[in-house]
């Protein structure tokens, strides 16, 4: 089986219990939850039984233990997660506003994540990998960007593949080096997985069919568009297909895109037909939004099959 790796932040997430605005007074909180988009992605890959690992760093603290033990338990290779001697594990405080948007307070850039880079353990993980997943939101920091560049070069040189989820908010685009790093990721991508409008950050075209044509023209093998409660679509040179989302109650949307992406990439590397892979990925995303906590809704293949059966879909 092909080994999938990713490179980027591991954090804990601490959530406000009640919706509202920000954190300027004392409120009930719940957490810590294991989190970080690349970590959620790799946890979901691991739960599907695919060999996988992450290049990251945590502090020498309980938040680090919580994350590393969680990933280890679910089957990810944690050998390239460094332990920073002094800095704390990264964290994100999140509160939902009444309109469904979110307020965040991040401590990532100056956390243990600042130690993420091309360590000897990272090099060993990269050398044993067949596929690299690039999470655009991880490109905020030089050490991560250069490790991703090196991993891209080495994995592509031996015939491996790259997937790319931009997973980016507009404010991040102006961070130094961000646009260049995103462009480099896109140039090397085999499987591109934007959420609806993110696609247009990379195209001259401003309507979907023209943007897809432009991306495929550049040499990307396949594009998967995530459409939240509207499901997802797949495009390659031979055509396109869409699959509706499953009807579930959305409890916490954080992590849906990362879990969806992990399921799709795993199925794609296993040679599954795109329509079937979309169905499995939609089921994984639906299960992710039904559970509170960013990584708490990741699924095993058995759980996905049970869910599909409950929805009347042949697993
Ligand atoms: P994220 O906020 O994690 O970055 P994203 O924008 O990358 O999310 P979404 O499109 O929101 O990704 O979600 C990914 C997938 O999860 C969807 O394509 C769909 O399959 C599933 N999903 C998301 N929201 C819902 C929902 N409310 N009901 C059912 N399925 C959902
Ligand atoms: Mg996303």
UniProtKB/TrEMBL annotation:
Instruction: Output the superkingdom of the source species.
Output: Bacteria
Q: List GO molecular-function terms, semicolon-separated.
A: kinase activity
- Provide the transmembrane region boundaries: none
What are the boundaries of the signal sequence?
A: none
Name of protein: Sugar kinase
- Cite the entry's keywords alphabetically: ATP-binding, Kinase, Nucleotide-binding, Transferase
The record's section on InterPro entries has: Carboh/pur_kinase_PfkB_CS, PfkB_Carbo_kinase, PfkB_dom, Ribokinase-like
